[in-house]
Amino acid sequence: MPNLPELLHAAVSDLGGTQRPGQTQMAQAVLDAVDKEEHLLVQAGTGTGKSLGYLVPAILHAQRSGKPAIVATATLALQGQIIDRDLPRLATALAPILGRRPTYALVKGRRNYVCLHKLEGGFPDEDEGLFDVGEADASAGRLGKEVVRLREWAQETESGDRDELVPGVSERAWRQVSVAAEECLGSRCPLAGECFVERSRAAAKDVDIVVTNHSFLAIDA
Predict the structure, then answer these.
(1) In Å, what is the CA distance from 70 to each residue of 85, 98, 205?
(2) Cα dihedral sign for 198, 200, 203, 206?
C-alpha cells in the first residue's frame, strides 16, 4: 500500500501542479486526525490546494479500512466541483499507484430524486386548487408541459437525479414528481425496490468516497 506522500505526489504531478508545504502539512494532519478519530480544524488560504489536501488522505483511509470516507460540503457548488471535476481527475491520477481506480458516489436528500410512486399517482397533486380562475389555464399549461417532460425523462434516467435534467424545470413542476423525507413511505412503498434514492444509497456503500452535504449528514446522524 503506497503512503500518503507518494499518493499526494502522484496526484499533484498528474494534475500538472506543484506540491506546496501547506498542502502537504494539511494532508498529513487530516490523515492523522482520521486515524486517531480526532477532530481537526484547518484554515488554509487560496492556492493551498485544499481539495487534494483532504481528498487524498480520505481515499488512503478508505483503502486501508475498507470503509467509505464521507466528505460533506456546505454548498451545492462545492459538492458539484468535487464530484464532477476533482474526484474524476484524482481517481485517474491515483489508479496506477493504487492498482485500481478509486470509486465515489454522491448522496443527496430525497427531494433531489424523482419519486416513482408519485409518478404512478401514489400521492395527491400538490397544486390542486392553488390557482385563481384567471391564472389557471396559463399556469396549468406551463406546468403540464414540464410534468410531461419530467415523466418522459423519468423513463430514461438511470439516476433520477434532478441535476441531470437539462434544461431544468420549475420548483412547482419538480414538486409534482418528488417527495420529502417525511412524506416517503420507506419500506412500505410498493416501488421501494426500484426507488432511485435507495439505489443511490445502496451503491454508496461500496465506494471509497461518499460526497454529501452538511444538512443531509446532520439529518442522517
Answers:
(1) 17, 20, 11
(2) negative
Please give the grid coordinates belonging to residue 102: 478509486
Provide the H-helix boundaries in 164-206. Answer: 171-175, 196-204
- Are the beta carbons of 199 and 191 closer than 8 angstroms? no
| 79-138 residue pLDDT tens | 889 999 999 999 999 999 999 999 999 888 888 899 988 888 766 555 544 444 344 444
Condensed to tens digits (0 to 9), the pLDDT of residues 11-34 reads 998 877 777 888 999 999 999 999
Find out whether the peptide bond into 167 is cis, omega within 30 degrees of 0: yes
Supply the DSSP string of 123-171, one letter for each residue.
S--TTTT-S-HHHHHHHHHHHHHHHHHHHHHHTT-SS-BGGGSSS---H
Q: Which residue has the cell 503506497?
A: 2
Residue with cell 487560496: 46
Are 197 and 110 in contact by the 8 Å Cβ rule? The answer is yes
Cβ-based neighbours of 93, under 8 Å, separated by 6 or more? 10, 11, 13, 14, 15
